[in-house]
Each structure stands twice: as C-alpha cells, then as structure tokens.
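Page 37, top half.
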Amino acid sequence: MKRKREFFTCLRALSRIVRHISYSDYPKTAKLRTSEGIFEWFITCLLDQSVNTTILTQTVEKLRKHYFLNYTKLQSRLATDKAKLEGDLKEALSSYRYHNRAVKAILVNLEHIIRDYKGNLHNILSFSRDTAEVWERVNSFYWFGTKKSGVFIRELVNRGLWPLSVEEIPIPPDSRVRRVLFRLGLVKNRDDLKEVQEVASELSRKAGITPLDLDCVLWTVGDESICGERRTSCEKCPLDYYCIKVL
C-alpha cells in the first residue's frame, strides 16, 4: 500500500516537471488569444512529430523568420499563388525529417481553417463547448492525431482560454505509453487498446492527474534513451523502483 501511494505521488511530481519543460512558455497567453497566436501554436503542435525539442524549436523559428507562421500573410499567399507558397515551404522545411508531409499538412489545414472556422481556430468553440466534440474537431485536422490534439487543447485550457474539461480527453494509447504500462505490470496485454485506456483512466484518477498529463509522463519515460523497445536504461528511469521488469 505504501509503495502504491509513493507511486501515485511520483506520477504527480513527474507530471508537473514534464509540463514545466514542455511548451508552458510558448507562445505567451496574450498572443495565444489572437488568431495569429493560436495558429502559431497549432503549427508548433503539428510539427512535433518524433523529433527532439531542439529540432522542433529550430524549425518553428525558421518558419517564423520567413513569415510562414503569420496567418494573414499565409492566407494571402495561398490565394494568390499556391504553387509558389508550396515551393517556398518545401525549401524552408528541407532539413525537417518529414518535410513533404509537413508542407502538405500546413496547406491542407490552412484551407480547412479558412473554410470552416473563418481563419480563427478559436471559432471552433462557436460550434460547441462540449469537450468531446471539440476534441473530435481538432483531431480531424490532417496529420494531427490524438496526441497532438490533446496537447493543443490542454495548453489552451491551462491558460484559461478554452472552458473545457481535459479530464474527459482520453489518453492516446501510442506504443510508448503501452510499453511502459506493460513493463510496470499495469496491463496484461499492451496490444489491447481497451485495457490500456481503462487502466490509464483509472491510474490518472488515483494519481490525481489528467489522462493527458499521465500520457506525457509515460511517453517521456518510454523514450528510446530510457525505456526503449529493444534497449532499456533503467538507471535513468524515475519509475524504476516501481517497475516489475526491474524487480
């Protein structure tokens, strides 16, 4: 029982640490209230695709320098010469790991935002204030997915900009999360997504953190440098004391 309490305390502490070192200072809340700011945040989440923080930061800064995060300018260029805009984006993202997919995602989603939300992602709330429906709308953007949708919404909720309940957003059961839960002995079959979802929901409730915060902790622990699929460095893991694999 004592070990369980310590485990939950450890998860709460790790969730605060992970949240602090993620995107907590980017962009500033005042800017995030604007259509420009929320679009910039959207693109940041979009590009966070299996790349380390340094590369992500450098990529975002390069796009900002060339005004590819300026929604107004992008909209104008899309209307006047889409082919030229596409070429310039490919050049700007040439060093990014998934540059072709990223260029397509930026253009497709830009058109989606213009068509369905009048150029302002905050207008998603004009359709519904129901957390599940808002999450589905964000999740429908091209190349976004459950994890990015959760991170995107969580930051807006944490800044007091979107009046939603992040507790209702399910944990994205990606391979890292499933691997760590299995090695901790919390799930019997890591390929059973229903079991993973149920265990993660119960674990986040008992630890007193949201499923998205739990996801961030498990995803960080499941990094290849700590708890990889083929290689583990248990001495680096903050959860090694509670891990059945170690015991």
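Page 37, bottom half:
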Amino acid sequence: MRMVKLSKIIALIIATLISMPAKIYADTETSTFATDPYFNDLVVSDDGSIIAYTDQNTNKVHFLDSNLQLIRSSAVLMDPDRIVIDSTNTYAYVGSRNGQKISTVTIADGSAVVTSTTSWNNRCLEMLPGGTHLLSCEGVNLVKRAVTDLQTGSSSHTMASFGTVTLSAQSNTDASRIYVSESAGHVTVLDSSLNTVDTFTSPNWFNTFVFLSPATDMLAVTDFTSLTTKIINALTGATITTLNLAATQFSPDGTMLYGIGGTGAAYLVAYRVPTWELVKQTSFPNPSSMTYKFSPSGDTLYAHSSSPDLIHEFAVSPALVMESVAANSNTNSITFVLSANEDIDCATLSASIGIDFDAIGITSIDSITQTSTDECTIAVTASAVAGQSSITAQLTPAITFSLTGASSVVSDMFGLATQSSTNVLIPGSTTTSSTSTTTTSSTSTEVSTTTIASGESLPPTGSRSDHSIIMALVLILSGFTLVLALTSRSRFYLISPRTKGNQ
C-alpha cells in the first residue's frame, strides 16, 4: 500500500562566528602643556607631584606640577638629555647628549652642579634601588656613580665596558640583575658591582633599548628602527612573543605595555600583559620616541608630541574587552562579558540602549551583573525571528560610554577596546495541519496530520484508489434526509479543502 507522506523538513544552518575587526580606542586626554622645540626627555617624580622635561632649545630643565603648571626652570645646562628625580624631590640628575657632563639640579631653585663623565653619550640615566647610586650610559661604558659624589661635582665612579655604545639600562628591585643594551644588539646582565652575570643575544639585533616589567620577570627589548618589540624571559633570555610596536613603558601594575605603533608610527598603542592583546590605539601627532611616563598610581599617562610640541596628559581608563559567551545561538537569550585589567564598577553602566551601549540585532539589555571585581556579565535579548535568516547580535560602545574604574572615572567617547558578536539562528516552529475531505456518492472522509516548519507550504493535494470496501454515512437532521451510501472494493479519497490546524 503506497501512501503519500508529507515530510517534516527543518533547515538549520549554524554560521561561523563573524570575526569582526577589533575596534581599538585610546584613553581620555585631560590636559596639554606647550613645550619648547627640541624636546628630549620627560620624567615623573616618585610621588607624582613633579613632571620635568629637558630641551635643547633653551638648554634647561623645566619643572611642572601635577596639573602641568610651570613651577620653575633650571639654569642653562649643556645639551640636557636624560633626566631622573630623586625620591625626596630635592635633586634632578641630567645627562648631556653631546657634552661629557652630568648636571645635578637643585629643584627648589634650579641651580646646578656639573660633573665630568667618561664620554659624551648619556643615553641612559637610571637610579638604583635605595637611591644612593645612579647608572649612566657613557659611550661604551655603563658607569655607576654615588649621588653624593654628583652633588659635589666629583667624578668618582665604577664602570663596565662593552664593545659598542651603551643605550639603556634597567635594574631589578635589589640591583642583583642590571640589564644593559648596546648598539650591537646584545643584552648583558650585570650584578650590583657591574660584574657580568649573563649575556642575551638581542632578539632585535641592533640599536635596542630594554624595559623591565615591574615584576622583573619579563624584559621588553625594543628596536625603534623596525618598530618591533621582543618580550623575553628576564632570567633565561628566551623569547616569549614579538609585538608590532616600539615599547617604551610598562604600566606601574605591570598589566599593560605602552609604546609607539601603527601606520607611520603615529599611534600610542597598548598591549595587555600577559595575553598580548592590542587593546588601545590612538592617533598621536608626531610622537617622541621614548617620552611616555606614568604617574606612580598608574591613573595618568604623560606623552610628548612634536609639531606641535606638547606634553599630553591622559586619564588612564581600564583596558576593556567585550566578548560574547558563545559564537552561535539558537535562542534570543545572549550573554556578553565585559572584562578589564583593573577593578570596575558594573553598576555605573546603563541597561538602556544608546547610553553606554549601542546595539546591533538586539532588542533589549536585560541585566548587567558584577560577576567579579573586574568583570561584568551582560544579558541581552536578540531580535532573531524563528524560521527566518540568521542575525548578528553585537554590543558596541555608545558615544556617551562611561564606566567607573578603580583608579579613575572614565568618560571616554570611544569606550570599549574590542567587541565580538553572536550569530543567532532560531529554527522554525513546528505546526500541525489538519485536512478534511468531503465525499458524495461512493466517497469517504479522511483527516490527515502534517508537521511543517514555519513558513513551509503544504504539498499539493492528491487522489488514490484501491480495492477495499468503504462505507459513507451522511446524517441529515431537522428536516434533512438521512443518506447511507455503501460502496464495495473501490474507494476514492478527495482531500479538499485543506485546513491548517494549530500546534
């Protein structure tokens, strides 16, 4: 017996998550200060109350307060370049770029005492832990000098010599490991007495600068020519990763690495440590190569640009990353997670679309929950319709995005660093369809049930005959005639009309 069967067909295609290009955003600029031309270096005191910079236009050091207001300028120096401030804010030590000098400047009045050096370089000045000694790059030598000698103009020193010009030096917290880079590309590790402990062949090979992480476990080895940075293990020298920036600063808490990057090296960029995600990037006019310095708390970043010559003050916002919990969904209940590199207050985010978040393919933000100190979980309802094409559900920052972090209140028109999305495809709902037949003479009645996907049409009606016996009974009441029809071994089905039933 051959029966016509109507098949239930449900088409369910789960699309691969669309990889949206990461949206990279910058911190909020809060103030600027116009500097002299031929700017060389920028430093922030240990307590954050003094910002000082050097320039070869006036040949002076200029001292600013934390609001970028000029306090005073020093006496005229010889080609001032690198600068450090002691922990008491009493003295600033300034190396000369072209002259064989280190100047000790008294911050209170700007007066200076000059000490002769072994060579002209002075591309690095680094205060050793405890504040009693200073390291200085002097030609092919790394020189260690007592600050008491510098304050009196004495040139007493100890030193380590290298094959090529020394460019930078960084010390760990007890000066047991001092990292020195030179123009030949080697990174040499010295102890506190400047004896060689180890030698790393630089991953970048030429004119490298080193920046030690606050935890002293990683070393950023920067090549300003190629604008690349290798992150290496500070104990073994093994390469951890390579980044497309010229790194200049770890944040004080070690969670971020800042530097210069992007097309034309015209961007201030930041990578999250240790996942090495690019989470911030802002156009920055003519950045100066090494002049990115944090306040001690890490909530302010100072950076210098040339043409125009400005010190820019940024209120450092949390580095935020938005991620969808699932790449695909077959329901309209979607979840996103907003995470940061510091504590954030999720209660400061609005669930009204258009205030903190704009929405694509989302009808409502249902809840924002603080799931950890640095994480918000955001539940939304997507706008997908059962049985129709898939949609992309995505949260993006609104122009008024604002979030309170541990260190500062963020009012950043750019908002989030990265968004991801969820593809939503809801299968069609099942539907029960009842069809009835009417018969005359030797015909019978049949009811068929068909399950279909939403939006599907029923197949065309059909007819068939066989050799069975069927009886048709028509009952007519209230003045109508009762008709009984009986047919033998031949029955005919007429499926009409077609009536769609409910689920």
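Margin note: The radius of gyration is 37 Å.
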